[in-house]
Amino acid sequence: MYSIAFRIFGHPIHWYGICIAAGFLAALCVLQYKRNYAKMTKEQIFDIGIIAIFGGIGGARLFYVIQFFHQFSGDLWKVFRIDQGGLVFYGGFLTAVVILWIYGKVKHLSFARILDMYAPAIALGHAFGRVGCFLQGCCFGRPWKYGVVFPPGSAPADRYPNYLASLADGVPSVPLVPVQLLEAAGNLAVFFILLKLFRCVKKTGQVAAAYFAMYGVMRFLLEFFRGDHLDSILGLTPAQFIGLFIMIPCGVAACICFGKFGKDSVTEEDLLPAFSLPFVHGKNHAGKP
Q1: Which residues constitute the domain of residue 63?
Q2: How large is the C-alpha radius of gyration of the chain?
Q3: Which helix (H) or strand (E) holds 214?
Q4: Cα dihedral sign for 133, 176, 182, 65?
Q5: What percentage of the chain has pLDDT greater than the value 70?
Q6: What does residue 232 show for φ and ψ, rounded to 5 degrees?
Q7: For residues 175 and 148, is the Cβ–Cβ distance under 8 A?
Q8: Is 135 among the domain residues?
Q9: Inside any domain, residue 251
Q10: For residues 156 and 175, what is the distance between their CA atoms, to the nearest angstrom?
Q11: By the 8 A CB rule, do 216 and 248 touch?
Q12: Per the structure, how many domains does the chain have?
């Protein structure tokens, strides 16, 4: 784990911040790719991308600060140092959903179509973010003899020190489950599944519903391997509680509801991408390789 990528005039640039920026750009590309589905212009995509993504980051940071306020009591300036890690995904997700709903109302756009369009973008951007978590040393896993070792001075080493492997510069961590990379891989798989689902579902809103359920299940299971927090609600971590009792039920209910009562059917014209992604379709709009 190397949290600092390089320095500019002595100021450290963290890999976490680079991964978040890369995730933002990747998500924006997906939004542009699917904008025809949501019947939005390039300008609207850029506007909603900036507003929702940065608003989501703000919400994710706010939830983290509230949950772990003791980390900032001595230095409140740290609240703004998101480049060093510290985002709660569900906080950002809920904030982004509210922002998307407001934007759809103001611009008279279909909220269901916007959510569908955003689902794979969030999954891909989140995958980049979890790689950043791994490099930063946050959101780490539980001890596992086949896991990865984090260096002295890192949060994993402070929580799970391996005194038998003490180094000259301190005590590293015991081997830990690389749960951050597992979630990154899971989000990447969800991203590809969601892109394929656009051609399978018949009603708008069902792609987003599938994302709610899939991510809820994935996060619920992966939380069993997390070792960075000990707080719980009825024996479950906050993320497990949200995934099991909110994300999964909402996803299943939304899928059934949109399937039975949805009025906006998906047409071939809606599915026409704004530009070609060879790794998804292998052909351009004209059907040429």
Answers
A1: 4-142+177-195
A2: 20
A3: helix 206-222
A4: negative
A5: 88
A6: -150, 160
A7: yes
A8: yes
A9: no
A10: 10
A11: yes
A12: 1
